[in-house]
Amino acid sequence: MTIEPVTHERYVARHRTLGVRRRRWERKYRVVLLVADAVAAAVAAFVIHGAYGRWSVALAMPPAWIVAMCAYRAYDRSALGLGTEEYRRVLRGAVALPAMAACAYWWFAHDHELFHDMMIAVLPAAVLCLACRFVLRIRLHRRWSRDRDRSSALLVGPSHSVVELVAALRRGGTQELQVTGVCLTDPVNSAAVSSLGIPVRGGLDDVPAVIHTTGSNTVLVLPAAEIDSTVLRRLSWIAAAEGADFLLAPVVADIAAARLVTRPYNAVPLLHLRAPALSKTRRLPKEVLDRVVAGSLLLLLAPLLAVVALRVRLDSPGPVLFRQLRVGRNGNQFTMFKFRTMREDAEDYREELAHLNENSDGLLFKMKEDPRITRAGSTLRRYSLDELPQLINVLNGDMSLVGPRPPLPEEVSAYTSEVRRRLLVKPGLTGLWQVSGRSDLPWDEAVRLDLGYVENWSMGMDVAILLRTAPAVMRGTGAY
After folding, report:
1. From CA 281, how far away is CA 127, in angstroms rounded?
2. What's the top EC group for this one (predicted)?
3. Which of 242, 235, 240 is CA-nearest to residue 214?
4. Burial (CB count within 10 angstroms: exposed 0-12, middle 13-18, buried 19+), residue 232
5. Which of 35, 57, 130, 176 counts the highest number of beta carbons within 10 A?
6. What are phi and psi of 269, to 5 degrees?
7. 10-residue mean pLDDT series, the chain (480 residues)
8. Do strands 321-327 and 268-273 pair parallel, antiparallel, or not at all (unpaired)?
9. Which residues of 360-383 are buried (b: 16+ CB within 10 A; e: fewer)?
């Protein structure tokens, strides 16, 4: 690979010009966040001022809040736009603010009233800031969906890795990166990439010219035998000379960013992959939250459950609840409850309908317009109302609010050792499979989502899935 000589003056000029053009929206977004945070903190402070009639908190809260957010890098580029890290940093700053106020109290002011007011103002300020960031993120994603403020990315690597990465990026929905070209280490296999609608612009030797001619803002390199440390270093020089960001895709896939940590050993940076959070101690908050929420929902939804039960009972002969043996965590079996949506003799006709299975590529049996489904059952399935009795399973500790789909014993008997990792956690009332298409998902994709959940579980992920569940249910996609 040859590198076009770049003088220091040309390097600075290119980097400055392209960097300004690329990061204009970033600077604007940060300014808007700063203003929104300051306003949110001021509103929270004035609420406290209205309650106690003291002006000191109104003057001290906004700058103190901004300092706390900066201290916890809530405006850092890596945390903006996607994922839950931005929200976590806001919460960390909010938790740290009372400690900062306590230090200021002991070292400088000794103002009991200011310290008291600052402590009380933290909660409304955090709520308002999170709400503002959520709204701003929606607006940013809408701009990305219109191909505005996106980074044009050039992928460099082998064709099979490029295909997998593009598929993963497209599964993630709206994002900042927009793949505009590929330079392959194996150009003879370019047909696989071209079929995705992405132009193949050459091989490794063509990277400098392609970055310059396309104006790519980002160079993303995937692992390949042809890309050793020397080639990788030269590629980074080329990207820097053109003012483009330089990204490396890890060898592992479907891993949450929070599990990847760089550790230096004798000046050699190594990537540390943290183990999944599967211990009882780490999952104790989830266990408590599951049962509290399930019990509360059962009380709150009791009238609706009674109406649905009456509708099922009057619609067709048979029991109101459908009981079925399912497999839970560590292979333990339990009886799962659902509102009955099929005829009482539905299982007798399953073999006759086997040829109509919509999931013939896996172990599930699903078909559209199943003749065994009752009139009431069709409506219940569309809006997932038949799943509500599973709140009893959650309350009993057999299931969780969020987790993999609860499998049948015959499905588990056919699992490979890899797929059996789904059983390391409790099955869920909802999950990534629910918010990503339900029955429309092919078997391999459903397994990938479930394994990704097991490997990358966090409370933040559970909250995000719960927030996405209601819109997914209302759309009714894959519900049959």
Report:
1. 28
2. transferase
3. 242
4. middle
5. 57
6. -75, 120
7. 48 50 71 90 81 68 87 83 81 83 60 69 88 89 82 90 84 76 90 88 89 87 88 88 85 71 75 80 89 94 93 87 92 93 67 54 58 80 88 95 91 88 92 73 80 86 84 63
8. unpaired
9. eebbbbbbeebebbbebbebbbee
Residue 479: strand, helix, or coil: coil
Which residues sit opposite 202 in a β-bridge? 183
Q: CA–CA separation, 352 vs 235, rounded Å? A: 59
The Cα–Cα gap between 468 and 390 comes to 19
- Nearest-angstrom CA–CA distance, 20 and 181: 22
Q: Retrieve residue 317's tokens.
A: 């002969």
Return the structure tokens found at 72. 């916890």
Long-range contacts made by residues 308-311, C-beta under 8 angstroms, separation at least 24?
308/339, 308/380, 308/385, 308/388, 309/339, 311/376
What phi and psi values does residue 449 have, to the nearest 5 degrees? -65, -45
- Residue 325's identity, in one-letter code, is L
Residues 271 and 260: their CA atoms lie apart, in Å, by 7
Q: How many helices and strands (H and E) does the chain possess?
A: 16, 11
Tell me if 439 sits within 8 A of 366, measured CB to CB. Answer: yes
Helix (H) / strand (E) element for 231: namely helix 229-241
The phi and psi torsions of 139 (rounded to 5 degrees) equal: -65, -40
Question: What one-letter code names the amino acid at 145?
Answer: S
Give the largest Cα separation in the chain, rounded. Answer: 83
Q: Do 349 and 443 form a contact (C-beta atoms < 8 A)?
A: no
Instruction: Check if the beta carbon of residue 283 is closer than 8 Å to that of residue 257.
Output: no
E strands, 398-466, are 400-402, 428-430
- Residue 200 β-bridge partners: 182
Residue 117 to residue 297: CA distance in whole angstroms: 35
What's the helix, strand, coil split of the chain in %, to 5? 60, 10, 30
Which segments of 106-158 does DSSP mark as H helices, in order? 112-145
Q: Is the Cβ–Cβ distance between 72 and 164 less than 8 Å?
A: no
Report the alpha-carbon distance of residue 340 to residue 351 in Å, rounded.
20
- At residue 271, φ and ψ (nearest 5 deg) are -90, 120
The rounded distance, in Å, linking the Cα atoms of 260 and 274 is: 6
- Give the phi and the psi of residue 239 in degrees, each rounded to 5: -60, -45
